[in-house]
Amino acid sequence: MKKAFIFDLDGTLTNSIYDIGDSVNYLLTQRGLPLHSYDEYQTYMGMGINVTLSKAMPGYDDLPEEEKAALRKAYTAHNEEHCLDKTRPYEGIPDALKALEERGMVMGIFSNKPQPLVTKIATFLFKDFTFAFMLGDVEGAPMKPDPARMLAELEKLGISAADSVFVGDGKPDVVTAKRAGMFACGVSWGFKGPEEVEGADIIVSHPREILDIT
Questions:
Q1: Which residues pair with 109 in a beta bridge?
Q2: What per-residue string of b and e applies to 171-185 under the rule 16 or more CB within 10 Å gives b?
Q3: What is the 8-class DSSP label of residue 10?
Q4: Scanning 32, 93, 123, 206, which has its CA 20 to 30 A from the CA of 130?
């Protein structure tokens, strides 16, 4: 029987595309650049804000590294202020988390979202639940699909990768799970659809189906 369920955040636990899009569009407005739709932002997601800005902002890749870092910092500051304006859990997620807790499952979060945003969103939207760890993007630390930080946390808890499930909506999540030796659960309600999680051990279309994994 599985002992731990680790979740991606954006596109898995929460629909955050509106607040993310608004914050990047804010940066684009500041620089007089064209804005993008929420649908476009869904295709820019999964590998952290650096990649999102690279895809959304013309000329970003050619900027000096210190200017890129300043833009990422500005994004995080704006989104930290507005990340709960429109972001909400997907329907069925709170019920699934409650059921997992009642079964005694350890739960964690591993996201490529900046750490301050992961902490704020998860602490507020999921205040009724206990997560053993909430990992987000930290400057200089490995990101998904590198599973090292997550595996270190599981080791502290005395839980093996083989006894754990990683739940996510994107290719980086599936690769993370596979590299870690975990059971990969792809979700079809995320930003890019079920084709994005091809190769997962299971693909679920509603949070309640996560409870069938044993």
A1: 7, 134
A2: bbbbbbbbbbebbbb
A3: B
A4: 206
